[in-house]
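Please describe what follows:
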Amino acid sequence: MTSEPATVDTPLKKLVGERTAKALASHLDLHTAGDLIYHFPRRYDERGEHTDIRSLDVGEQVTVLAQVQRTAVRPMRQRRGNLLEVTVGDGSGGLLTLTFFGNQAWRERELRPGRWGLFAGKVTEFRGKRQLNGPEYVLLGEGGDGEAAANEEVEEFAGALIPVYPAAAAVPTWVIARCVRVVLDTFTPPDDPLPATVRASRNLVGIGAALREIHRPSSKEELYRARRRLKWDEAFAVQLTLVQRKHRAAACPAKARPAKPGGLLDAFDARLPYELTSGQQAVGREIAADLATAHPMHRLLQGEVGSGKTVVALRAMLQVVDAGGQAALLAPTEVLAAQHHRGMLDLLGPLAQAGELGAADDATRVELVTGSLGASARRRALTEVAEGRAGIVLGTHALLYEGVDFSDLGLVVVDEQHRFGVEQRDALRAKADQPPHVLVMTATPIPRTVAMTVYGDLEISTLSQLPQGRSPIASHVVPAAEKPAFLDRAWRRLREEVAKGHQAYVVCPRIGEGPASDEEAPREDDNGRRPPVAVTEVAPLLAEGPLHGLRIGVLHGRLPADEKDAVMRSFAAGDLDVLVATTVVEVGVNVPNATVMIVLDADRFGVSQLHQLRGRVGRGSAAGLCLLVTEAMEGSPARERLDAVASTTDGFKLAELDLEQRREGDVLGATQSGRRSHLRLLSLLRDTDLIRDARAEAIALVEEDPELARHPALAASVAALVDEERAEYLEKG
C-alpha cells in the first residue's frame, strides 16, 4: 500500500491492499479512490438514537446501531452444542435477537450488556420475534476483543455521526468505513470544477470540504452543507447536459412547415364533430408556431388519459402535409397502431381518400405499416410512402426497418414515448433528409422535477382538460380475501352494465403458459405468493361461471396480429360484451361504449399503469366504473397504494405517489444499462428547489459559454457524472 497522495484515479489496491480492493471491486463495483470517495453513506446513525427496529422488514438486509440488553446460552435441540442468543435494543422499545450457533463462549464475553455496536445481517422471524442469524458486527467504544479493537476508525465515530454505507454481505459497512478512512488520510481532492461565482451566489462549500464532511461529518450542520453541495453537482451536471442539447438542437437547420390557409388542416377543423377544448387550441398554437420555424421542434405533449392528445397530434401532421411534407406516427403495439389508423380515417373521411372517388380536392392518404402486413399490402403501402402520396404514415417498429423510405419526412410523432429507446427514435429521424420536427406524447403525467431532470431538453405542453362529453370514472377497491361477497357483487355489477347495452373489460396481469412478455407482471414475488391470474385461465372460468351467457373475447400480445385486430374490431363494433385482456389495452384503445373495468390482482400493477388502464372506460356519455380486485390486506403498502388510486383521478397526484414508491433511479434510467446510478444523493421528490436553481444557473452559463470552453474542469466533471450512455438515456424524451 502506498503513502503517496491519492487522487480520484488511484487504484484502490494501492491504498487498501489487493484482497480488500478485490472485494470492493467484485461486490460493489468500486475500483479507484474516486469510486470509493463517491460511494456515499446511505444514512448516519447516532448512539442513543434508535434505528427503529420495529420498522424492519423480514427478508431485508440491514445494518442497525443497537445496544446489548441481555445474553442467554441454551443447548441446541437437534444437534450437540450451545446456542447463544443476544437481545439488542435501539432505544425505542424495539428488540432484535442475534442468534449464534455452536460453542462461541468468547462472543458471550464480548457482547456484554451495555455495549453498543453495528450489527448487519438478514432479518428473519421466529415465533413472532425479529432476529438476525449469525450477524456480522463491530462494537463501539471500550476496545474489546477481535475485530472491534482493530477498528479504530469506528471508535472515532462512537458518540458522533456514524456513516452506514450501501454494503454487501462480503463487504459490511464498517469495512467500507475503514477503507474510506485510509483513502481520506492521503486523498487530494480534485480542483473545484464549479465556477467560483456559482459557489458564492448559491452559498456552496468547496468540493474538498464536501467530500470529507460527507464521510466524516464534524456536525449535522456541516453534513447538511456537504450533502447540499454534492447534490448540486449532480443536478447541475444533468441540467447542463440537457440545456446544451437544447441549445445545439435550436442551432440545427430544419425545413419550416408553416400553416396553409384553406388547406387540409382548415378543412379538418371544419368537419370536426366537436369543439376543441381551450387547452387543445392553446397547445395547437404552440406546436403550429414551432413547425413554422427553421429549427426542429422538440416538444413533449403530456395529457391525462382521454384529454385529446391524438387530435392535437393529427392537426400537427396535417399542417406538415399542407406544407408539402409527410408525418409519421410511431406506436408501441400493433393494436394501438391499428386503432390510430381506424380513428384517423374516421375523423378525416374524404380528406384521407386521395385517388378515390369522392375524395376531397387536396386529400392525402393515411397508410398503416406493421410487421404483420401481407407481402402485396406491404409493397403497396411502401410505394405510397416512398412516392409521397401517403402524407400520414402510422406504424410500429416496422417503420424503422430498411426499405421503409419517405419522400419528405417532416414530422415524427412518438406515441407513449417511454416504450421506445433513443436508438429507435433516431432510426426514424434518420429517414429524413434534414432533422424532422419531433413531437413525443405520453398519457403518464410527469411530476415537475422529473420533467426538469429527464425531459429538460424538450419544450413541454400539458393538456389537463377533458373534452366535453367525457364522463367521470368512479374507482373502488374490492378486498376479495377479506370480503369474498364483494367480488360476487363486482361480477353482478358488470352484468348490470351489459344489460344496459354497455361493455366491459376484465384485465389480468398475466397471459398464461409460455415465456413471460413485457405486458405481464412478475409471476412470483419474493414472498412466494401464488402467480398472478392469467387471461387464458380466467376467461373460461368466467364464461362457465359468473359471466355465463355473455359474449367474451380474449386479447393479449401473444395472439397473431390479424387475430388481435379481429378481436379489437369485434369489441369496438359491439359484437362482444366483455374483453378479457392483459395491459395490451392500457393505451390508445378507444371504445366509448365500455363503461366498466375489473382489474384482477390489481396490486400487481403500478400506480401509473392502473391510472392508464381505467382511462379505457368512461370515454362516452355514460359514467365509468373501475373495480380494483385484490387479496392485499388492509393496512399493507399494496392496499394503501390501491386506496390512493381509488381516491383520486388526478394523474399528477398519482404520478407523485408513483415516484415516492418507485426507486428514483428507475425513473432516471439507473437500471437502463444495469449500472449503478450516477445520481447518488439527488432526490426528485425532496430537492425540487435545488433542481430548479441548478437549471437556472445552467441556462445562464450555456448562454455565455455554450460548449463550456472557458470551464474545462466543469466540462470534465459533467462528462464523468453524466457519461455518454446516460446522456443518451436523458435524450430519450
Remarks:
- The CA atoms of residues 261 and 322 lie 9 Å apart.
- The longest helix spans residues 220-251.
- Confidence is low (pLDDT under 50) at residues 143-151, 153-159, 665-677, 724-733.
